[in-house]
# Entry
Amino acid sequence: MKTRIAPGLLIAGLWLLLLLKGPPLLFCLVVAILALWAADEYLRMIDPRPLGVGERWLVNVCLATPTLTVCIIPDVAALGPGLLLGFFLIVLYFLSRYAVLPNRFDYFCRLGIGTVYLGFLCAHLVLLRYHPQGAAWLIIGTAITAGSDTGAYFVGRKFGRHKLCPNVSPNKTIEGAIGGVVVGVAAAAAFAVSILPQVNWPFLLVSAAVLCLVGIVGDLTESVIKRGTGTKDSGRCLAGHGGILDRVDSLLLVGPFLYYFVMLSGS
# Structure
């Protein structure tokens, strides 16, 4: 556990510094790098073959194309074309390598899902950052996922008795999920007091509770991928925390939901 604390605090500190002090352009650059890195982890999970560096990063770019498109054109109108372009590039790659690919249809489905899971979902973090209060909402979204994850871990260890989704993630419990929701909502409220003083509190509290549940589904989504590919961690780049995907799995799904909650509510 101790090996996780210091890297976790460092990651959280750098992320907060980026959101509080960094301009949107720098945020786009960081998210683009993270999206490509996460794409590489995903590709290594679904395809353990020793691919050449050029081919591997070509596929990574295809998977991350929706995010890269929105980084270049930070508008929701660019999201659909970006997803279409990413899928089209994946199809071209698949057709060009069809003769040498294993389990062709399965591999094609995995690449297609990856374009949505990584490129499409991650793009919403960029869209949210360009909202007038986007940095503050991203901090709250991060607080929700981090608080929910922490609360679920400790409450689950202490009081967990009933399995939440044993076939996907045997360690997660219903009690832990409830604890995660409570801590996640409390974390959102604590940050909102200082960075969003004019917030609509009923909207915030209800949204935070829903987003805690969304974050749990996001975590389970990555667990499905890891279980289907026989992978324990998506990577080893973060000491004690696995890979990039292991850290952002909840935020990948929370980000889009939070973006649309904020836009539809006019907050």
